[in-house]
Specification:
- With 267 residues, the protein is α+β, with helices and mostly antiparallel strands.
- It has 2 domains: 32 residues; 221 residues, Muramoyl-pentapeptide Carboxypeptidase, domain 2 (2-Layer Sandwich), CATH 3.30.1380.
- The chain is 43% helix and 7% strand.
- It is built from 10 helices and 6 strands, in the order αααββαβααβαββααα.
- The strands form 2 sheets. It has a 4-stranded antiparallel beta sheet. Strands 1-2 form a two-stranded antiparallel sheet.
- The longest helix has 26 residues.
């Protein structure tokens, strides 16, 4: 009787041990410390490096990025998968109200931004000899390489980058819808009016950022990037002169930070 009871207890212990081991193996099947493929992985354990923050990587081969379906863009555009998924949900919702949303610009890495920057630099240089003045002129709308939010795959330009489009009735409807609804999908217009004491770039009604990711990246950027990291292009020495990090990188609408908190609670 005692032997039977002992065997029964031993069997139960061994069975439980096996079950616990299976749970542990499943929990860490992607490796401890690796970003898991779930709704919160990017916020709790993202793979963020200096090169990523500075745009010095190839988003075409980075597993976090996806090529957008042509249905939602006007050329070959990549976004982070979570940004893309959120945009599609927003675009579908807008379509139901007869609003068409198309991405005209998405991820741009260091080299992409360098091409844009240096083209403008050389063009301005014919008339503007002072490096600081040239830098400030370009910064009206364009970012320095290594400082653009477009590096992260979280920011996108919608429908047009021309102010005239948004002054027309169609553009006004699009912008009104975005102002009223974009936050529901995690997006915010980071470059709003400057009358809210915002510094840096001029108002960009077309530029929207997926805040549940970009707020995290911005926080990491401010903590880890210094002016010595901003280099490798014409005029890079002006970055510190114009207070690039504080005035421009951090020069966003402060109300946008609340969207990340709201999205976390929903998850």
């Amino acid at each position: 009787m005692r032997l039977d009871y002992f065997i029964f207890i031993l069997s139960v212990i061994l069975l439980c041990s096996c079950e616990f081991k299976k749970i542990d193996e499943q929990e860490y099947e992607n490796g401890p410390g690796t970003a898991q493929d779930d709704d919160t992985s990017e916020m709790t354990n993202p793979d963020v490096t200096k090169d990523f923050l500075l745009g010095k990587f190839d988003y075409r081969t980075d597993s976090r990025f996806v090529l957008m379906d042509k249905k939602w863009c006007d050329k070959e555009i990549y976004l982070q998968k979570k940004t893309y998924d959120a945009f599609v949900k927003m675009a579908v919702a807008a379509k139901k109200e007869n609003i068409d949303l198309i991405v005209v610009s998405g991820t741009r890495n260091f080299n992409d931004q360098k091409t844009i920057w240096e083209k403008k630099w050389k063009n301005n240089e014919k008339k503007i000899k002072n490096a600081r003045e040239n830098t400030l002129k370009i910064l009206t709308y364009s970012s320095m390489p290594s400082t653009s939010r477009h590096h992260w795959g979280t920011d996108l330009d919608i429908n047009s980058v021309e102010e005239d489009y948004f002054k027309e009735e169609k553009g006004k409807k699009v912008y009104r819808w975005l102002v009223e609804n974009a936050h529901k999908f995690g997006f915010c217009q980071v470059y709003s009016d400057k009358n809210k004491k915002r510094t840096g770039y001029n108002k960009e009604v077309w530029h929207w950022s997926y805040m549940p990711l970009s707020n995290y990246y911005l926080d990491n950027y401010v903590k880890n990037i210094s002016y010595s990291d901003i280099s490798g292009f014409l005029g890079s020495e002006s970055a510190k002169q114009v207070d690039m990090i504080k005035t421009y990188v951090q020069g966003i609408d402060k109300s946008c930070s609340a969207i990340s908190v709201e999205s976390d609670k929903e998850k």
